[in-house]
Structures are given as structure tokens and as C-alpha cells.
Specification:
Layout (H helix, E strand, L loop, with lengths): L1 H18 L3 H15 L7 E8 L7 E10 L4 E3 L1
Antiparallel strand pairs: 1-2, 2-3
């Protein structure tokens, strides 16, 4: 598991450097591609939002993208 983690992080760093992306954006790109290959997501739209919770303003949240599944009208964040 540690070897997988190490190789994955190196892949993310390499992708970030070659694409001129931030490491965070490269991570989202790679993971979303893997999820689409595994048919967990039908499509992926990157979009970045960071904010606080409605009921508890101390709760922090972040969305890096979404996928909308037309077959059951659901969003995956």
C-alpha cells in the first residue's frame, strides 16, 4: 500500500509539472479519470468551490467537481 501511495503521488507531481497545474488540480484530474474508467462517474466537470457550512459556520467544505447522472438525476460531488 505504501508503494502504491508513493507511485501515485509521484504521478500526480509529474502530471502537475508537465501540465503546469497545481498539485491539487492534477490530483482531481487523475482521480476523476480513474473513476470514469471504472464507470463510477459518467462524466466529470471540474469546478472549484470552497466555503463554510450553513448550520455550522465552522464546518469547512470544498468541491473540486461534479458528475450528473441523467439515468437517476443525481449529482456526485
Amino acid at each position: 500500500m505504501e508503494e502504491f501511495r508513493k507511485e501515485f503521488l509521484e504521478t500526480v507531481k509529474s502530471h502537475a509539472a508537465s501540465e503546469g497545474d497545481l498539485t491539487q488540480a492534477a490530483f482531481v484530474t487523475i482521480v476523476s479519470e480513474k473513476l470514469m474508467d471504472a464507470e463510477e462517474l459518467t462524466d466529470f466537470e471540474p469546478c472549484y468551490h470552497e466555503g463554510n457550512g450553513v448550520k455550522d459556520r465552522r464546518l469547512k467544505l470544498r468541491i473540486d467537481g461534479y458528475s450528473f447522472d441523467e439515468s437517476d438525476n443525481t449529482f456526485k460531488l
